[in-house]
Structure prediction request, 248 residues.
Amino acid sequence: MNRQPHSALDRGRKPSARLLAPLLGMVALFSLMSWQSPAFSAEINQVLPAPILDVPAAPNHQAVAVLAGGCFWGVQGVFQHVRGVTRVVSGYAGGSADTAQYDTVSGGDTGHAESVAIDYDPSKISYGRLLQIYFSVALDPTQMNRQGPDTGTQYRSVIFAVDPMQEKVALHYIAQLSASQLFKRPIATRVTPFKGFYPAEAYHQNYLTLHPDDVYIAINDIPKVNNLKRLFPEVYQTQPVLVALPKE
Prediction:
């Protein structure tokens, strides 16, 4: 089931909660019967082993990680609650600048994946730790070209390595997790060199925080943040780091 496009909610025309209420129970039941959301997957509902290999800390240095794992709403929401992260932007990576618009990317043939760019302080949290959180709570890494209800190459799981060391760490960690046999299916997440990141439209930014009662968010993404809090309490921060949005 493809999100085409993110419905009237994206355009600020959020349906009345009163109108949605009679359908909410049926929607939630159908959703849970129709797919296995990463948030409810027993395989990732645990703290996975930390990476054996990690990027060395660099004092007085800001770093960036670019990750894709399905709808960027939930991935952004998770990492906005991670201590040491200073900014998380939803956007597109893997394709060219001229196709980096939501309606175009939704066609699934641009090469883009819905992604997040995570600015972080390596003296407070490492790249490897971010990957550990990513694989533990942000997605189901065994799904190919989809996450939960969302299908298409734009929802694939990809680690866009911004330098050779990130690429080495990411590949080593995937091999480590594969060898652990903690997943029943092969890990589908790919590692590819970073070529560019293009921020998504303003209405996609901070979506989880701004629309916590959205049915899609409630079913698919709020549980991921709850799992972050439960499984990684030492890095969880209650107040999310939000993207500054232009004033209307």
Remarks:
- The longest strand covers residues 85-93.
- Residues 17-34 form the longest helix (18 residues).
